[in-house]
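Risk register update: the risk of archive-format incompatibility is retired. Evidence:
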Amino acid sequence: MTDAVLRFHPDGPPGKGMKRWEEMDPAELMSGEPVQNGHTYHEIEAEGYLAGVWDCTAFVDHMGDYSVDEYMYLLEGTLIMRMPGGEEIHLKAGDAFVIPKGLKCQWEQPSYIKKFFMILDGPVPEEGCNPSLTRITVPDVSGGGMAAGSVVTERVDFANAAGNMQVRQSAHAANAIPSLQVSAHQLIQVLEGSLTLTSDADEETFAAGDTAYLMQGSTVGWSTTNGTRLLTSSYCSPT
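Archived output:
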């Protein structure tokens, strides 16, 4: 894959859509016969990394350790995440959330859902320790406390144990940044305002509700309108 800038579509790439994915192992399920479809926009198989769009019918799995670091932006449907102590986290369309690898939890999906995702199945260092690793992180995307300053205000909501995956929010003034090398693969949800990304191949503008993806190592120029807010999940590949 060589495209510097991609647009993630909720139904997969125009003209291609999504494909049926393999069935889930019934031994991992408490209930349901889920049918899942998806499209992987970017994958680095050797690093256990992929990003794309996924949908699925209802199911409930068993309480257990989550197998990957995963960022998700819920496009349709509702979801309940249950914790071993009885806590329930209720999620709906428009919510973003992150589950760290190894966290014990249970996925309860009462009906059809669709999501964008970024997954990393990498090694977890024993010395990794931060509050993000002991909870399901649900960033507050309402904009509270994120008013743009003269250029940009940033807040990190999640960092994985290895330190190579983050979820952060940023608020921007009207600003244009010349072409710079992208330091990590980035899945960007435009919450407010607009973001224009320029590469050698193209220039594309992403409005509120749109989702952009940047390839690490590519050279891209940025332009934002005043009051633009972005929610970004990023993975810094060692290669």
